[in-house]
Design a protein that fits this description.
alpha+beta; outer membrane lipoprotein receptor (LolB), chain A; LolA/LolB/LppX; Cell envelope biogenesis protein LolA; OM_lipoprot_carrier_LolA-like; signal
């Protein structure tokens, strides 16, 4: 169960009034984002993750690094305040919890959807109207893509996903809102695109 909630946390409270994009603006943004996604072979970044629980007065903060390589290799590594790694490779998920290694076969519906959701959030390739109700708006300097899951199983864990893209069509921030209104927010920094990544990043 711990792993499931950490996986959900991978998909990241600024009070800004979002202005809806017109149909023409939305289509243009999607076209540009897809074009950017096609050029993206690798991505590395640092991240800060905040977990907001309504019953707690202070958010829980964790820090780490991520590395992604097409088509579906992702290393998500927490470095502070604890050591925890999750490696995604196709339908396999390997977890290293402070030295204890375990494998998860992502052959059930929930894990498959979460796995796909995490990769899509990193690459920006998430415009699947069969899976989500999608809306786009301008939020400050960012374009906000709001995803409302349609799948009843996924809705048990995720009520809404907010993805904030910068002017270069790269995801800056991810906010995942649970049915209870608790949420996880992830902020990416020091992003590096299409640089060489040591294969050791995807091994435990």
């Amino acid at each position: 169960m711990k792993t499931l909630f950490l996986l959900l946390s991978l998909c990241a409270p600024f009070v800004l009034i979002a202005q809806p994009l017109t149909a023409e603006q939305s289509a243009q943004f999607k076209t540009q984002l897809i074009a950017k996604t096609r050029t993206l072979q690798t991505m590395q970044a640092d991240f800060q993750q905040k977990k907001h629980l309504n019953f707690m007065s202070k958010d829980i903060e964790t820090f780490g690094k991520m590395a992604f390589a097409k088509p579906s290799q992702l290393n998500w590594q927490y470095t502070k305040p604890y050591q925890y790694r999750i490696i995604f490779q196709k339908d396999n998920i390997t977890v290293n919890d402070a030295g204890t290694v375990s494998q998860i076969k992502a052959d059930n519906k929930v894990f498959k959807k979460i796995n796909h959701l995490i990769i899509s959030s990193v690459t920006g390739d998430m415009f699947d109207e069969k899976e989500f109700t999608i809306s786009l708006s301008q939020s400050g300097k960012h374009t906000l893509v709001k995803l409302l899951p349609k799948d009843k199983t996924l809705l048990k864990y995720i009520r809404e996903i907010n993805l904030y893209f910068d002017a270069q069509y790269l995801v800056d921030r991810v906010k995942l809102i649970e049915p209870t209104a608790d949420y996880t927010e992830i902020i990416f920094t020091n992003k590096k695109l299409n640089t060489s990544i040591d294969e050791a990043n995807f091994k435990i």
